[in-house]
Design brief:
31% helix, 6 strands, 6-stranded antiparallel β-sheet, globular, alpha+beta
């Protein structure tokens, strides 16, 4: 059964999945489908599609609704990695504070929720993920030790503890 779901089965890969497909549901009937694939000799993609009541967006290439924004228009926009530095420099010059902490925390928890759901095959709510007591860290960090690779979580078998 393990072979059916994964191509990365060697213990050197740890417990990484080689693909994810996750649906997120937000308030006001907004849905996001996030996909990624990391399989050798395949086209690898990390992409999202956001579905709202007024249109659909593939944040990397288009926004379709009453007005359509194309990949070319998005490419002409400021690179987000350049923009964050532009914002920081402007904040330093103006004395204003730039604090992206909440955005980063929400983004990180969103990714963790997706992993929890994929591993368990269960629906995971924001509150249950936020209040989960799941701990994936070793009790002691000792870089001279080789830590055992835990078994790969299998949907329907692995149970997410909220």
């Amino acid at each position: 059964m393990d072979q059916v779901f994964r191509t990365r089965t060697d213990p050197n890969f740890g417990q990484i999945y080689d693909h994810f497909s996750i649906e997120y549901e937000y308030p006001k009937n907004v849905f996001m489908h996030s996909m990624c694939r990391q399989i050798n000799n395949c086209w690898n993609s990390v992409s999202e599609q956001v579905f709202g009541s007024k249109g659909v967006s593939d944040p990397g290439s288009s926004i379709n609704g009453k007005a359509t924004v194309t990949r070319d228009a998005i490419r002409k926009a400021q690179d987000p990695y350049v923009q964050e530095h532009t914002d920081l420099i402007e904040a330093i010059r103006s004395g204003k504070t730039v604090n992206e902490l909440m955005t980063v925390a929400h983004s990180t928890l969103t990714a963790i929720m997706g992993r929890m759901s994929a591993y368990s095959g269960q629906e995971v709510s924001w509150d249950s993920a936020l209040n989960s007591d799941v701990d994936t860290f070793p009790k002691v960090f000792d870089f001279s030790e080789k830590y055992p690779t835990p078994p790969v979580p299998m949907p329907g078998v692995y149970k997410y503890k909220s």
